[in-house]
Amino acid sequence: MTEVAKGGLSLSGLTKNFGNFVAVDNVDLEIRRGEFLTLLGPSGSGKTTLLMMIAGFLDISAGDILLDGTSIREVPADKRNFGMVFQGYALFPHMTVRQNVGYALDVRGRPKAEIKARVDEMLDLVQLQDFGHRKPGQLSGGQQQRVALARALSFAPPVLLLDEPLGALDKKLRIEVQAQLKEIHRRVGTTFIYVTHDQEEALSMSDRIVIMQNGRVEQLGTPTELYERPRTRFAAGFLGKSNFLIEGGATYTLRPEKIDLAPKGHINGAARLTGTIRSITYLGSMRKYMINVEGRDDIEVDVDSWRNPHELNEGQQVDLGWSDQAAVKLDED
Ligand code: ATP
């Protein structure tokens, strides 16, 4: 595979105003060469706007973007040479898969033999060797996305920008293509910047995740760091589920699967709280218990469904326990 020795991006004070609305607000971000970085946030948090500024499709209102130390602020989109896989950036329907994948090289005037070799290499990468002569309309949604990926990587871009590329696929297929995408990232070594609002997608693929809210970076970290040590209520609630406990004026976050549940008086160790089961929801791999504790919001406890030793029932009194490390103090509310 072609090795890419560049692709580090540095965003400083990056801002986008639409009239007096601030869509991206003073973002500082170091994107490492070759990393898989995901922008994760709710609808309207500024993910696409940030990506469009990196792509060069949107002017920057303030701040700068450096590629390997050099400002690209004034470089037009087509001269940035970034690969793109966007939902609206469809394949050319009248061209075959091979023509689609070779298109960017053709436009760049590369020799025919080189294009052929590179298209073979790309089709191999996305495992569509036998589909080169089909038209996009003769492919499944997942296969079309792989062609789009092959097309975007054909000219070995330093950076690949992906905006919700799997959004149109059903869940099972999305998980399959996620694994393929991650494997392709490992093989090509290109910097991937990936926009999604799907937390599982972000957790399963990313080296690091940027959680965005209101055009700002809420928290940046590896999937484990963000899940295990969220700093704010928003980060804890957006990536995974969380209970919030207020103890001594400080707020703590406690993940539902880190709580032990047992009939009153039967918990191993000390009970932290006692409550009543308000509801039990069977979700296949786990059961979700909502526990009513006097003077508090309901507490969610998730238990693997194969581990239900006590045959708990709705209305039953239960003890809740957890280890000291399970409850994480937030920096702020
Ligand atoms: P989604 O997940 O829904 O795609 P997003 O996080 O990508 O959301 P953006 O598309 O970046 O969000 O939009 C950020 C904010 O900027 C939104 O409030 C949006 O309405 C606003 N916005 C985006 N483009 C424009 C525009 N051309 N003119 C005015 N406001 C805009």
Structural description of this entry:
The chain has 333 residues and is α+β, with helices and mostly antiparallel strands. It folds into 2 domains: 9-233, P-loop containing nucleotide triphosphate hydrolases (Rossmann fold), CATH 3.40.50.300; 241-329, Nucleic acid-binding proteins (OB fold (Dihydrolipoamide Acetyltransferase, E2P), Beta Barrel). It has 9 helices and 18 strands. The strands form 4 sheets. Strands 6-7-8-3-9-10 form a 6-stranded mixed sheet, with helices on both faces. Strands 13-17-14-15-16 form a 5-stranded antiparallel sheet, with no helix packed on it. A hairpin with a 2-residue loop joins strand 1 and strand 2 (21-31). Helix 3 packs parallel to helix 5 and helix 4 (112-125) packs across helix 5 (141-153). The longest helix is centred in the middle third of the chain and has 18 residues, at 171-188. The two termini are 47 Å apart. The protein binds adenosine-5'-triphosphate. Adenosine-5'-triphosphate binds at residues 18, 21, 23, 41, 43-49, 197.
